[in-house]
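Example with several molecule types.
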Amino acid sequence: MATKLTARRHRRISPTSESRPVQWLLIGISLIFMGVILVLPLYAVFHEAFSKGIDIFLAALSEKDAQAAIRLTLLVAAIAVPLNVIFGLAASWAIAKFEFKGKAFLITLIDLPFSVSPVISGLVYVLLFGAGSFLGPWLKSYGIEVLFALPGIVLATIFVTFPFVARELIPLMQDQGTGDEEAALSLGANGWQTFFRVTLPNIKWGLLYGVLLCNARAMGEFGAVAVVSGKIRGQTTTMPLQVEMLYNEYNATAAFALASLLALLALVTLVLKSVLEWRFGEEIAAGTHE
Amino acid sequence: MEVRVQNVRKEFDRFPALHDVSLDIRSGELIALLGPSGSGKTTLLRLIAGLEMPTAGKIFFGDTDASEKTVQERNIGFVFQHYALFRHMTILENVSFGLKVRPRSSRPPAGEIRRRALELLDLVQLSGLEKRYPNQLSGGQRQRVALARALAIEPAVLLLDEPFGALDAQVRRELRKWLREIHDRTGHTTVFVTHDQEEALELSDRLCVMSQGSIEQVGTPDSVYDQPTSPFVFGFIGESSELPVVVENNELWVGGRAIGVPAGDAKPGKARLFFRPHDVELIEADASLSGVVTTSRRVGGTRRVELAIGGEGQHVEVDLPFDHPAGEKSRLAFRPRRWKLFPAA
Amino acid sequence: MSTAVSTARRQGWSFRRPSVIPGFGLTLGFTLTYFSLIILIPLLALAIRSAGLGPEGFWKAATDPRVLGSLRVSFVTALIAAGVNVVFGTLIAWVLVRYRFPGRRIFDAIIDLPFALPTAVAGIALTAIYAPNGTVGWLFAPLGWRIAYTPAGIVIAMIFIGLPFVVRTIQPILEEVSHEIEEASATLGANRFQTITKVILPSLTPAILTGFALAFARGVGEYGSIIFIAGNIPFVSEIAPLLIYIRLQEFNYVGATVIATVMLLLSFALLFAINLIQAWSRRRYGYGN
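Resulting structure tokens for the full complex:
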């Protein structure tokens, strides 16, 4: 009994923690804030989507334009994500495995799209391929439409998702150093063998992590795509754009139905991401030691 | 200030870290808590500091029971192994911190705080570096700042947790000598934790050898070295060789041969003989320990040889003059000059 | 001997340090080409368009009252939101790192929701909640307070998208703050409040500043989650990115370009400031983020 009392007193006056009531107060404030700011919107999406029943929900999703938007979104992600993966692998190989001048500057440049407003990311392509530009009319003379068509949407999506894979892989590969590759080369492997059999297995979870984030953003991008798409119903509207259109047409239930698919994608992304972090923490983030 | 640790027990989540430990620390002495990792020495130090609270038992500072006091109220100076300097503060700010956080009623005026901090930096030979940040100092310098910071609050007791553990061998030796000087000058009651016996033997007035959550022996370095009271202490402090022996007819026997060592008042039966490798004499007599040299290597001014004794693969180490002709497979006979006998485990 | 010296010198001058690992030319070449095509050339197109206006034309377009109004709305709301996020983000990071409570991991994962949830989805959801008949808006309506369709709605949306930047910047640094320095502070007589305000928070300052700048930059540029909830009334609740969009719809490329250039310059200045904070913090304290 006496032991128990002492133990409790010990916990109370531990010099590096707060008392239990203070802890619960702070936890409470944090959870309420997160609940209102983060959880409530998520709940609202599903609540609104099913507010008129499952039949309306399913009807909204099977509608022709909605189907077209889903297909376009998948197509855009299927082009943009692999391209950024190839870029991410190339950039991280060059940056992590070699020492050269201007490397730090290059790393900063790769992060650049993160500090550009999505609307501006779309705008730059309008300026490059739009009516007043040099490139637009020239391409048009060959029958290639960039703006208000798939290429423009893909380009804008690549722009905004550009850094995701690279910024995940660069610190990871820098942390791993060049020892494994040098060992493989000294054993007679050529460059590609070294990459596919040594480097890639070392970074696979980090790569998957980057792909997850890149994909979530690619499928969900709104501002940049809104600027370049022209919003031609059934042709150049991606899912987020379709959500906006439906919402502005006061078809809130249909808008939320489509939005709930995107929210589901976000949830799946978060779950996979957390699983990767818990299971492979050290193989994802460089220098993370839990 | 004298410190009395009385029947202290400490459990972490039911795992016992200290069993019923009692220790009297005399005012003004420099005492070392020495032991292998996991022996409970750091736990004992943290209990004295108030960074941990005992599961049972009491700790007295002088005549007052400090067990109920928080770490802030105990007024102790604590020096951490990894310095724990505040990285966003200059050296001067680090040293003055303890005075600046005092309540207004007991806080010295700003000028006085500054004067005392500078004085301490002078004491630890870091004058002129007060505007630097910890990041700009070497490890040895950082540890000296940590000590100055701990001294600034005029602590009742100074506690150091492996203070030289993170430093190079060279710097360690210098700081050791220097800590002794500071102690002699300031006269603080000082407790320091170390796993380095050389450090403990050289630096402390008394040392407290710990193992597996208990105190094995407390005494001056000489007494602990010369009269170890347990096999653990004999093995842990200094070089030692151990041999299983049999006590019979007031004599020690190995492999059916008397070895010319009296058993004193040891009870007949199995026992463990301990001696120091350098404390042996080579003799040509029937009653001696004899063995075959298995390895031989020169260590500085002596030659350390390992001998296989008896048929059961027992090995002991003895020191010979470095120019002794014994090579591998030669036979040597010796007798320990001083030894200690412990009952078989 | 002389070869060694000359090799050393050549290394000192060369663009890259020699290495046995192959693929430098290929990967760096691809990186730079791809970067130029996707990022650099389009941004240059913007710069050239902008420069083509001449200083006078640029100034005239940039100081158009509606443009200034939209920039003011964007910056003021983003400042407020980043301020709120610094307070709550620091608190949440603290709670997640220091305390153990049921559901901690789930809440830790949910912090990243704004990174994963498409902005348009967040926009309509926030609007539904904060509209006068929504879950939260309904509470405030009797008091005569409106959140949706006012600048307050913009702030709410910016808090949503900015929160993870603050939390995720502070969290790793807070995890690194060693228990030893807190114990050191306690042994020196500091009470818990003093330890937190004088020892822990100051060592987090660089991370807090960085998180603030990141949340602010994100807020200023944000479009999707805001336009639904903002009400979009010029001079009151019209944000700069929306005005760019409106100018484009009007085929007023000049107007769009000017606003975009001003915003880009400001966000690059912010990016530069963030880099300065981190370099300073690394130099002085020996850590950054």
